[in-house]
Amino acid sequence: MHDLRALRADPDAFDADLARRGASPVAQRIVSRDEERRAALTQLQEAQARRKALARDIGMLRKSGGDSAALEAEGTALRGEIETLEARSSLIDAEIAETLAVLPNRLDPSVPEGRDEDANVVVHQHGVIPDMSFTPKQHFELGEALGQMDFEVAAKLSGARFVVLRGALARLERALGQFMLDLHTGEHGYTETCVPVLVNEAAMYGTDKLPKFADQSFRTEDGRWLVPTAEVPLTASVAGDILDEAVLPLRMTALSSCFRSEAGSAGRDVRGMLRQHQFTKVEMVSVTTPEASDAEHERMTRCAETVLERLGVPYRRMLLCAGDTGFGAAKTFDLEAWLPGQQAWREISSCSNTQDFQARRMNARFRVPGGAPSFVHTLNGSGLAVGRTLIAVMENYQTESGAIVVPEVLRPYMGGIEQIG
Predict the structure, then answer these.
(1) Which CATH architecture has domain 117-420?
(2) Which residues belong to the active site?
């Protein structure tokens, strides 16, 4: 949600920020409707004050035996006027809220210009791209040859974009999730949190997933939503709260199943595990003060990078351009892992600073001792997407025979197994 006062103060700057994302100007329309709303509220307050005065005068007349019929008629008319003004101001309020709810966050000034991913900027690259003496296979070729990655059975059970993992590959995916949680909680200071994967509409709206991404999510018959990411319950856990500044930053992490309809992605990544309706992800969420959020964004991104460095997977950090930055984000760093089977960089983590965008939607604030409440800043990042990390490990650690070498940091989680296949 946006700060209506800031929008009124500089509507041209607001529209300029939207234009960076390719969105049409709306500020003047919102300001105009807001002026109507404020005028209606002024009239409402005047009518309520007059009605209160009439009630007093009518009471005095009745006590003195005077004729109050004219005043009572005026009061009846005022009652109707008040109801009309209340309805009008409420309608305009709803219209403004509906308009603001579908407008993306304002971009941080450091976000580069650009229409799409081609304008994203490489911040740095880490690790050496493996020089394999054979033609590397893609993860699904490796997994199916091992008999431990089954898309046919998954389709029989659930349809397209699902997978069944078996044996050592299933254990490797579990090992990755446990390794990430241990790293984030043991070294990075995040609190492990087990969250529901079914949430209410308020949680989805507060974390900017509704109404914009309703078609990307699964809804149950009783009106709850399957989480597209644990960001939703983790961030929404502070909705409506006024936190003491002393407890900030709050850092939370969770390993959860995630669910996305992948609407609009027909024909993209139809083979393999890259784009699934159900997947596992370790999520990181931070709640902090506005002054600390830039540093927290860098810290969170480094936490995600550390996972890839410990695993020995080559990656690069991308600063997303204006046209590729997500709806709720003010600034986003993507981490892309090198996949030898595809001979391509593919996203494996996205770390975003939403600043106060989500906080305004869910009314999450903090208080400095002796001061008035202010909105917190919220950040979220993948630490990492477990399925995509499994893909990266499989493709980077494959051998010519089709076996998968287990990275050393994962072997304690694998019972000492050094190689799969």
Answers:
(1) 2-Layer Sandwich (3.30)
(2) 260, 275, 347, 350, 388
